Every structure is written in structure tokens, then in C-alpha cells.
Amino acid sequence: MSDIKFDDVDELKRERDIEGEIGVFLRITDHIFLKVLCQSDANPRYRELGPKRFKELRRQANAKATPEDLTARWAELFTDCMVIGWEGVTANGQDVPFTRANCVAWIIQHPRVIKILDTFTEDETNFRRNRANDIKDDIKND
Questions:
Q1: Buried b or exposed e, range 9-31, using 16+ CB within 10 angstroms
Q2: Are 114 and 103 a contacting pair, CB within 8 Å?
Q3: Could you tell me which residues come within 8 angstroms of residue 76 by beta carbon, excluding any fewer than 6 positions away?
Q4: Measuring CA to CA, how many Å separate 117 from each of 5, 36, 100?
Q5: Tell me, what's the pLDDT at 142?
């Protein structure tokens, strides 16, 4: 084992509380931010539901489920496992409260968000305090 104390080691450490409890804001547009948790073992919601739901989604895709059905299942998966809040989602000029039903409906109407969520939430390096603080500052400045 080396006696060298490398300077950047702390930057590579996982922040499990950010990954699985606190979350970070993901910028969707200039005004819409989703608060999300990581697809990791640090996220109890994902740990409990994620692998089973992903397996079921693959089974449904292989069974030729309709694109609409798959979109709805993806929306439910991300809402139940990763999305825990939002900022800037509106309808008729009014803020829409974050609820499971509202989130699922919003993702279904914006299916491109599924790919954005999947790509972002699977990368644990997105779940760091410095990144979370940068995005919080962006929200305050909007």
C-alpha cells in the first residue's frame, strides 16, 4: 500500500445522504427543476422498488406493450423512486403542487424527461453537495 495521500480523494467519495435522502435539483428548462434522488443503493425507495420495476418494464417492452403504456410505467417508476419534488411546474399560470399523481401526469405529457431523468439519476457523481448548492443558487436567481 502506498503512503501517498492524494489530494483529490475526498472529491470522489460518495455522499450517500445526498444520493438517497436529500437529493439535488435537476434543471429541465430555465424555469423547471426536479428534485431527484440517485439510482443507487443509498436510495431506499430505489433499493426497494427500482430493480423489480426495471425488470417489469423490460418484460413489458419485450411483450410489445404500447409506447403509451411504457411511458406511463416509466413515469410511475421515476416518480416512485427518484423524483421527490419540483420547482417551476405550472398549469394555467399557477404553480402545480408536487404530488405523485401530478408528477406522473407531467412526465407522461413530457416523455423526453424520462431519458433525462434516467441519464442524470444513474450517475452518482451528480449527487454532490457542491453541485446541489450550485443548482440551489440558480433557482434563487431565476
A1: eeeeebbbebbbeebbbbbbeee
A2: no
A3: 53, 104
A4: 36, 8, 16
A5: 56
Using DSSP's 3-state secondary structure scheme, residue 34 falls into strand
Cell 413489458 appears where?
A: 60
- Give tens-digit pLDDT for 18-71: 999 999 999 999 999 999 999 999 999 999 999 999 899 999 989 989 999 999
Which are the contacts of 96, defined by CB distance < 8 A and separation ≥ 6? 89, 90, 102, 106
Q: What pLDDT, in 10s, does the model give residues 83-127? A: 999 999 999 999 999 999 999 999 999 999 999 999 999 999 999
CA 136 to chain CA mean position, Å: 16
Q: Is 23 helix (H, G, I), strand (E, B) or coil?
A: coil
Cell of 97: 403542487
